Predict the structure.
Amino acid sequence: MIHVAALYRFARFPDPKALRQPLLDLCAAQGIKGTLLLAPEGINGTIAGSDAAIEVVLAHIRTLPDCAPITAKHSHAETMPFHRMKVRLKREIVTMGEPAIDPMEGTGTYVKPADWNALIDAPDTVVIDTRNAYEVKVGSFAGAVDPRTDAFSDFPAWARAHRAELDGKRIAMFCTGGIRCEKSTAFLKAEGLTDVFHLEGGILQYLEDVPPEQSRWEGECFVFDERVAVGHGLAPGTHALCRACRMPVSPADRASPLYEEGVACPACAATRDDTQRAAYAERHRQVKLAERRGETHVGAAAPKA
């Protein structure tokens, strides 16, 4: 089994560039694959490898400025869920586009998974899913508000547009692993809303800790790797990934006449022309040929629409 560790930490990194190469070299030496983002505000990402290798890399990350307390959410996959190891330099480790927002200066109140049901079951609580629309489609908490955003940077505009509906309410927010809630709750507090809470450890921690029979979660949780989605106990889900538009596709989507593996799905079939379809089909053919050789095809993706 492959050990998968999702992690983030808001921290002060005066020179993120100086941290990049040593981290990349260590991951390569340990056979780790995945993606880590470095920015002046900290580190974020998911990595996968052997148990021992993950511990070596986490130990190194804990030596970085402000990162000694960092924790990771651990799960397992039957096969390696990443093709490469990437350590990227970014302006933000999760892009909101609000430079004045600093989660290290204060966020909403953390709520542990064991206490989350009581909070969201209360009739005076507004529950907000801070993820993007395609993630919400895969699964969410029953009754949660879906802002229908295409990117996290759309959230501030949505919140400002719906400010009147949030005034005076208890607000409970959640996301995949917790990082988007750090910023979104900090943003709402900066906007003057005070009764703001968020799910500690995110959906992943909830699905790991809360038994299915007690769960308020409906569906699966989209994850940003080749597993595509996970369910309770972080077991592999039933969704696949459309290689044309990179959107999750459910079993029902895959039964649609508009779905062609590696080429198109119901969400993008109408937007692909014959040239694009041919390029996607050829890439898919190369992937299958590589699989038969016992290799992983990681060549360039076919052209986007």
Summary: The first helix runs from residue 16 to 29. The chain has three domains: 2-89, 103-219, 239-305. The domain at 2-89 is CATH 3.30.70.100 (Alpha-Beta Plaits). Confidence is low (pLDDT under 50) at residues 300-305.
